[in-house]
Amino acid sequence: MTSTPPPAHVSARPSEARERLLATSMRVFYAEGIHAVGVDRVIAEAQVTRATFYRHFPSKEDLVRAYVEATDQNIRATMARAAQMTDEPGELLMLMVHGIGEEVCRPGFRGCPFINAAAEYPDADHPVRQAVSAHRAWFHDTLTSLLTRAGHPDPERAAHTLFLLRDGAMVAGYLGDAEQARLALARGTETLIKPAYQDRHSA
Which residue range is the domain that position 44 belongs to? Predict the structure, then answer.
């Protein structure tokens, strides 16, 4: 009688305690600031023990990096869902911009979580800042790719400008008139991508 071979690697289900800790940190770090919220607060609101916290996150800095990385993954997933709605790069850019505009106008908005995290971690070599930089590099590459596919004559420069528009809308939406920030971002993006459509239709 032959023995049944062991199953291939099966990925373990995410720890519910870890997910609660991460969800709690994403809520309170964004709403109140990272340095303003201590580990005890996160532990209490996530309803886990201190030992459980340190089993998943050896330090608060590890939790903060996980928070930034989870926020990045959420945005990438949103972009992936948008890409399933259309394969036209110009439309996808505008879907992305409208999504950012809706975020700017939602209750409780307090700016870009990555800019906020970077402000609290000024050392560019810190793991939290590296996680912020990784997100921003991905976002810039995504913009450049979409603008290239759309036929923009200078996609790298346009991506840089659109990134600045996005950052400005995030700051203005928090500190000023959110609706005006949303409209300025949308109009600026439309103006930015016009050369691609003009070249395409004149070809």
Answer: 14-58
Mean pLDDT of the chain: 91
* Cβ neighbours for 75, distance < 8 A, ≥ 6 positions apart: 135, 139
Please give the backbone phi and psi of residue 155, each rounded to the nearest 5 degrees, phi first. Answer: -65, -35
Cα–Cα–Cα angle for 65, 137, 72, nearest 5°?
40
Of the pLDDT bands very low, low, confident and very high (cuts 50, 70, 90), residue 198 is low
Q: What is the DSSP string of 71-134?
A: HHHHHHHHHHHHHTT---HHHHHHHHHHHHHHHHHSTT--S-HHHHHHHH---TTSHHHHHHHH
Does 96 lie in the same domain as 147?
yes
Q: Would you give the DSSP letter of residue 55?
A: H
Assign residue 103 the CATH number of its domain.
Answer: 1.10.357.10
pLDDT digits (tens, 9 = 90+) for 88-98: 999 999 999 99
Tokens 């923009």: give the residue.
Answer: 152
How far apart (Å, rounded) are the C-alpha atoms in residues 136 and 79? 14
CA angle 47, 48, 50 (to 5 degrees): 130
